Amino acid sequence: MPFPVTGGSANYTGNFIPEIWSSKLIANFYDATVLAAIANTDYSGEITGFGDKVNIRTTPELTIRDYQKGMQLQVERPDKPKIVLNIDQGDYFAAVEDDVDRIQADINLMDAWTRDASEKMKIKIDAKVLTNILPSVSALNQGTAAGRISGNINLGVTGAPVQLTKTNVVDYIVDCGAVLDEANAPETDRWIIIPAWVAAMIKKSDIKDASLSGDSQTPLRNGRLGTLDRFTVYVSHNLNRVIDSSGPQSFSIMAGHKMGLTFATQMTNMESIRAESTFGSIVRGLQVYGYQVVKPEALARLYVRQ
Predict the structure, then answer these.
(1) Which of 161, 248, 251, 257 shows the smallest number of beta carbons within 10 Å?
(2) Does residue 298 contact residue 260 with C-beta atoms inside 8 Å?
(3) How far apart are CA 126 and CA 86, in angstroms?
């Protein structure tokens, strides 16, 4: 029989080791979030606390000039301002572990706790980042006249979102690839994030024929979309969505290359302190993070409605 608890208190069990919790939480967070897949995360190890900043060196662009034998060369001193990644946001959790539960524990719920905490942080942080980076997408990679060279690719705009169907959904994903092609984005490490209803349309489209996608199994069998036109396809419920003036709910599908966005996060505080009002320990943690669009031309936005 479990130890009796007062009304409003949870009767859970488990053990807490701060160092293990911290590492497991971040590992589970990176497994759950799309940010680890779509962004450069090389700078997470440089965070020491909330309010820190990371200086990112960028590669200067050299000028390529015509050459004639015997001419005097023009020598330049290449330089480009550094980009500052501010670690200016944070999320925390705090829970109490009762002493009786800790002593009588026959199982360890740390895995369940870390999965739950990382999933909730993923939902909050993914939604925030995927919305806040929208204004930083290059103007040439969105709207009704997208394309740095062609300027005639329609990716939708407020008031006139693209209406996706199972017939045209793959065409518009290919258009996103063309926009990135014109922006000279590398073909490897490209990604696209779509809502679940768009994923369902893709599975109903002609690409359900495995031979068209080059896969050994149709998406109708294995449920995985894999790669489309050089994009690794991710499904997320955290894309920005609004009620557009055109009527139905509209979504901002994001596409790009990992060089376009940098993201850094770290658990900077993990601690257990004695609770004052009960026999137990308060477990709390602080996760700090920051993100920055470093190459707007490496991101694209497809504005759609169902």
Answers:
(1) 248
(2) yes
(3) 17
Residues of the chain with CATH 3.30.2400: 18-133+261-291
* Residues of each domain in the chain carrying CATH 3.30.2320: 138-260+297-305
CA angle, residues 75, 77, 78, in degrees to nearest 5 = 120
Tokens standing for residue 295: 């190459």
Q: Give domain 138-260+297-305's CATH architecture.
A: 2-Layer Sandwich (3.30)
Q: How far apart are CA 160 and CA 216, in angstroms?
A: 38
Q: Is the pTM of this model over 0.85?
A: no
Q: Domain 18-133+261-291, CATH 3.40.1000 — does that match?
A: no
pLDDT one-digit tens code per residue, 108-128: 555 566 667 767 777 888 899
**Three-state SS at 111:** helix
